[in-house]
Amino acid sequence: MPLGAHMSIAGGIYKAMERGQSIGCESIQIFTKNPRQWAARQLSDEDVLLFKQHREETGIHPIVAHDSYLINLASPKEELWHKSLESFAGELDRCGRLGIPYLVMHPGSHGIDGVEMGLQRVAEAFDLLFERSSGEAIMVLLETTAGHKHSLGSSFEQLARIIELVERKERLGICFDTCHAFAAGYELRTRQGYERTFKELDQAVGLSRLKAFHLNDSKQDLDSHVDRHEQIGKGYLGLEPFRMILNDPRFRGLPMLLETPKGKDMAEDVENLAVLRSLIETE
Predict the structure, then answer these.
(1) Residues designated as active site
(2) How far, in Å, CA of 67 to CA of 11, rounded?
């Protein structure tokens, strides 16, 4: 399994791969810009060249991008929706230039307009984006969410509905976040719950669309609808869900990425990666 973590791009986007390599990542996730600002510095030709050189030198693969926290393609507010549309177009463009195959996103919040209207807004945005996007090789991964307030994506049926509504269905995949799915009410701690959860995902969207995992323990219990990540094995999920995922032949080869809390020296990532690797059963 290509194990890794979300890496900072401070000091240059290529620095993420140096940081990842330094702690033994085989795959990484990055932001391609500051996720808390609308503005984005344009990538220079040198930025792109350095990024691709470091990718080859480190052998880190695949590299996954995550979109900005500000984007809300489900928004009922026209100004925010159009701003989100343009910002997401920029995300796709940067991924295209850098050769990043996957862009993870949260479906967004429908405000008070209702779930179906929000899902339709997301689908409308994707139809417009994919129609004008030249990044044919980039797959957008809809991330499972915890379901806080008006946020979309906490049920597999909602993710399936977005895919159903979008014309270019081949451009959409799924990123399964263990903390979010658990907080949304999907049991992962028992073999029965685990198998039922992935059977439901398969029936709703198909496991062939599952392209990446976020491996995070949860600070809150099942069905809390609270998105709070915890170190692996130290939250309400415990170790068993990660053991089952890491040894599930259906998910062999998929990038599995930490988004757990960490300090500047990344010691937590080192510890979490070691714990995950200790759970892999050798044949």
Answers:
(1) 36, 66, 69, 106, 143, 177, 180, 214, 227, 229, 259
(2) 19
Q: Which residues contact 150 (CB under 8 A, 6 or more apart)?
A: 109, 110, 111, 112, 118
Q: Is the pLDDT of residue 283 over 70?
A: no
For 83-119, the pLDDT digits (tens) are: 999 999 999 999 999 999 999 999 999 988 899 999 9
The whole-model pTM stands at: 0.96
Q: What is the pLDDT of residue 134?
A: 59
What is the β-pairing status of strands 3-6 and 172-177? unpaired
Q: Is pLDDT larger for residue 27 or for residue 265?
A: 27
Query: φ, ψ for residue 185 (rounded to 5)?
Result: 115, 5
Amino acid at 264: K
Cβ atoms of 178 and 239 within 8 Å: the answer is no
Give residue 18's Cα distance to chain centre: 21
Helix and strand totals (H; E) in the chain: 9, 10
Tens of pLDDT, residue by residue over 12-23, are 999 999 999 999
173: β partners: 141
- C-alpha 126/C-alpha 116 separation (Å) is 15
Question: Measured between alpha carbons, how far is 233 from 275 in angstroms, rounded to an integer?
Answer: 8
CB 188 within 8 A of CB 182: yes
Please name the amino acid found at residue 236: Y
